[in-house]
Amino acid sequence: MKLHEHQGKDLLRKAGVPVPVGRVAFSVEEAEAAARAVIEETKNETVVVKAQIHAGGRGKGGGVKVVRGVAEARAAAEKILGMTLVTHQTGPEGKVVRRLLVEQGLDIARELYASVVPDRERRRVVVMLSSEGGMEIEEVARRSPEKILTRAIDPAYGMRPFEARDLAYGLGLGEPATGKLARVLQALYRVFVAEDCALVEVNPLVVLRSGDVLALDAKVNLDDNAAYRHKDREALADPTEEDPAEAAARAAGFSYIRMHGDIGCMVNGAGLAMATMDILKHHGGEPANFLDVGGGASKDQVALAFKVILSDPSVKAIFVNIFGGILKCDVLAEGVIAAVQEAGIRVPLVVRLEGTNVERGRQLLADSGLSIVVGQDMDDGARKAVALARGQGA
Ligand code: ADP
Ligand code: MG
Q: What is the reported pLDDT for 73?
């Protein structure tokens, strides 16, 4: 689950990371009041109005405005609230801004980058630090990887003070910034572990002329596998940020991730789902989704999964690729038939079934009167799905 910047900053603040004074606002009036309060508290007329969406790159997209005074803050809020913000992370359709963070404007001396992420190869949580803040870290990694410092942390000890100082020293900031930076890094690591995060990224982490170090941005992703350990978490979810199809799939207990292609995939098992996407791409197609209905899906769950795929308007063909193990082929067939009878189907359907009760499954589909293209095997099915999505005959 992704958090908004203001929620991420709340977590950081509680862990002892300095963050700017700020308030969240859901309307222009609230934004105006927030600006007044922030100016009052900081005795500084400079405030920043920031769009809160689950994506970065807001600055470049026009979602972050530095202004002076309450009237200008109100004008900025009027402009940003309700706008569709397009950034390199939102996709071309953009995201509608429904809330703002109004915060203290700071006089920045340097913009750094810091993050805490799992490193699968090292099998450790890694703390990353770079002098190149404010830019896309992927770009820094490509152009000047030597400017990214990393330290893998032993979970038995956590991030110890000397490790944090060693990393911080690497940027040559001098004192007092280095010592403050080291403490911030330790706090970021503590947040990552205590909150069961998948990512804590602060870009930029800024150094002020005074040597103070503050988190100016916060991107915190929580690991959903640990949701059961944090019962209070649901309150942080923002349903308006979620893809409705993904939310429906999650509620029903299967994994569905929307992609950018046009071939809807209905598969059981994550490995087979990945292989199915690979083989579609191999034949020149583009999957519209990743979907794993899971091992023990019922007829109703299969039907729901099928409807979720159909709800995506970019789907031009559907490829059902099922290896019947615990999920039997006849149950799958019943689910597909039920979904089509209820919701109709507007695109060609290719089905490749193998495994338990395969004969019965095929028979049910044949008797259903649905127009189904049979994939003899995975390769054949994928080729036919790609051709049909292009409007060619299979
Ligand atoms: P995003 O990463 O989505 O573009 P950021 O929160 O990183 O959004 O803001 C973009 C840029 O705006 C920052 O790199 C910084 O230069 C500036 N900025 C953001 N917040 C403040 C602030 N409180 N004071 C001064 N400048 C800010
Ligand atoms: Mg940023």
A: 97
Nearest CA to ligand 1 atom 22: 105
Domain assignment present for residue 394? The answer is no
Asked if 264 contacts 319 with a C-beta cutoff of 8 angstroms, the reply is yes
Q: If DSSP codes are grouped into helix, strand and coil, which group holds residue 363?
A: helix
For 173-212, the pLDDT digits (tens) are 998 999 999 999 999 999 999 999 999 999 999 999 999 9
Residue at 365 is within a domain: yes
By alpha-carbon position, which residue is closest to atom 9 of ligand 1?
59
Burial label, 23 (beta-carbon count in 10 A; 0-12, 13-18, 19+): buried
Residue 317's domain spans which residues? Answer: 243-389
Whether the pTM exceeds 0.85: the reply is no
Give the catalytic positions in this structure: 113, 201
- Supply the pLDDT for residue 394: 66
Which of 132, 217, 220 is the pocket-test mutation for ligand 1 (most atoms within 8 Å of CB)?
Answer: 217
Tell me the CATH number at 229.
3.30.470.20
Asked whether residue 118 falls in the same domain as residue 100, the answer is no
